[in-house]
Specification:
The complex is a heterodimer of chains A (117) and B (114). Helix content of chain A is 0%, strand content 50%. Chain A contains no helices and twelve strands. In chain A, strands 2, 5, 6, 10, 11 and 12 form a six-stranded mixed β-sheet that branches. The N and C termini of chain A lie far apart (38 Å). In chain A, 35% of the residues are buried. Chain B is an all-beta fold. The radius of gyration of chain B is 13 Å and the shape is globular. The mean pLDDT of chain B is 94. The chains are: A mainly beta (117), B mainly beta (114). At the A-B interface, strand 6, strand 10 and strand 11 of A face strand 5, strand 9 and strand 10 of B.
Chain lengths: 117, 114
Amino acid sequence: AQKITQTQPGMFVQEKEAVTLDCTYDTSDPSYGLFWYKQPSSGEMIFLIYQGSYDQQNATEGRYSLNFQKARKSANLVISASQLGDSAMYFCAMREGRVGSNYKLTFGKGTLLTVNP
Amino acid sequence: SAVISQKPSRDICQRGTSLTIQCQVDSQVTMMFWYRQQPGQSLTLIATANQGSEATYESGFVIDKFPISRPNLTFSTLTVSNMSPEDSSIYLCSVSRDRRSPLHFGNGTRLTVT
């Protein structure tokens, strides 16, 4: 079974509007971390935001915020005031915290975001 | 965040040959990983590069095909052996300092096998 599910292969948004990219996850570990990365067409992987399973508040980082709903096992990325430069592939990833696991991340299939002028 | 230098950035190789990719980090890091990204796909973990011991491979990846070295805490190599066109991918080195830290990635090696 997939551990990270991103159900939106592609999303479109108008410049200056907000957009939500969906991510659901599956784990039985009480301790885990959720990450979002951006991959522009140049191919580099850019870390955006992190949410720990025990964090009390939703993570925010500039125009990025994470809508963390633990009971629903969802960790959606919200981008406010979209810019043309936000057009890229976005990956959700999870790190599980069980004993014996290392620090590896498991990635979802990604969502291709296109920002229209 | 760590600065990761990965070489080569791209290569075109013939079927049956091998390519060694180098990953150099500017500071000591606990964990180092090698990922593969096939065209239009997500990232798949090949293995965890363990300092001073054999790498830990994920299901579907074997040491004979993807031998990995990690002689110290700042350097690792991944070799893609006996290449076939199916090995055409981007190979990414990544590092992490601790459990709450994100993975930081090198710029990747874009491999084309003809």
